Amino acid sequence: MRSLASALLLAATLLPAQGPENVLLVVNESSAVSKGIGEYYALRRRIPLHNICRINVQPEESISRAEYNQLALRIRAYLDANRLHDKILYIVTTSGVPLRVSGRVALDGDLAAVDSELTLLYQTGPHRTAGSIPNPFFGHKNAKFEHPTFPIYLVTRLTGYNFDDVKAIIDRSLLAKNRGKFVIDLRSGSDEAGNDWLRNAALALPKDRVIFDETETALYNQKDVIGYASWGSNDSHHRQRHLGFQWLPGAIVTEFVSTNARTFTQPPNDWKLGSWSDNHNTMFFDSPQTLTGDYLHDGATGASGNVDEPYLHLNPRPDLLLPAYYQGRNLAESYYLSIPALSWMTVVVGDPLCSLGKP
User: Fold this and answer.
1) Burial (CB count within 10 angstroms: exposed 0-12, middle 13-18, buried 19+), residue 276
2) Which of 104, 192, 284, 304 has its CA 20 to 30 A from that of 51?
3) Radius of gyration of the chain (CA)
4) What is the pLDDT along the chain (359 residues), one digit of tens a residue?
5) Integer angstrom CA distances of residue 182 from 173, 340, 349
């Protein structure tokens, strides 16, 4: 009789592997930077050629719902034609693939991130577009991400201000190691849930791996940073656009900011963070807030951001994200088990396979 250990080993071999063969790379043939990123990532991560889906759309950051539907149909058709529906676990979009589906901003609105919509391509039927849809993987800290248990794709984006930024993100993802500090910066004087999530993130990590601050002073110039969570420019004391951190390869970022992924166009060097009440003197792409692209440009390997107002309770949860990443989950799984809602505002930037490995 086959031993229990042998049976478990056999069962494990039948589970889908989580590597390059499980990644669908989406390249926009109408965008030179998208093609360049696609070629570089496919080479560095050894993505199979039949796992590269080539589309041809206008490389605009915002598209209509009708344009999104056409884009989604092309990707779904590629998955079906190549019998990749179940094998693919991760979809990687690139700069030049549209970022946002235009619409109304409200809890029941229909504006959303393209990547967040694409997570639902695994499901064959249409989904409602008004409001968000619960993420079935949210909070499943100890579950293996696989199909059909979790009927979604985990979608990340390889983007930055330019090709060099994205090339650096890919290179750093291959050098990631489980070392360095998790920097967690609360907003003083606030009793909102976000501060509780930040505190719980600190408690869930080894004490000697955490720099934790709940004073009025924003944290700058930290060394050996592997993770960062804060309120970003929603902390009135956070007014430096560049933190001056020394980011380690594999470092990730999340913050409670509503418009930090509103664009990946690089601002002028003299642009400064501001507030909504400063008479539009510090607006860049209709917002004075932090930009996810700055963290990536300065050396982070992964980051989450929002194309528009997600509302606090639907932001990525640092108390789920940072411990999962520390414990060895890859970048995509760490972020998505921390994201409450899909068909919503959040964009995850980075190589989905990036992992620190076990501590």
Assistant:
1) exposed
2) 304
3) 20
4) 334 334 333 333 333 458 999 999 999 999 999 999 999 999 999 999 999 999 999 999 999 999 999 999 999 999 999 999 999 999 999 999 999 999 999 999 999 999 999 999 999 888 999 999 999 999 999 999 999 999 999 999 999 999 999 999 999 999 999 999 999 999 987 778 999 999 999 999 999 999 999 998 999 999 999 999 999 999 988 989 999 999 999 999 999 999 999 999 999 999 999 888 886 778 999 999 999 999 999 999 999 999 999 999 999 999 999 999 999 999 999 999 999 999 999 999 999 999 999 99
5) 17, 22, 18
Do the Cβ atoms of 213 and 185 come closer than 8 Å? Answer: yes
Question: Where do the H-state alpha helices sit in 154-307?
Answer: 163-173, 193-203, 292-298
Name, in order, each residue with C-beta under 8 angstroms of 90's C-beta and a sequence gap of 6 or more.
22, 23, 24, 153, 154, 155, 156, 332, 352, 353
Q: Round to whole Å and give the CA distance between 4 and 18.
A: 24
Who's near 312: CB < 8 A, 6+ residues apart? 192, 193, 194, 256
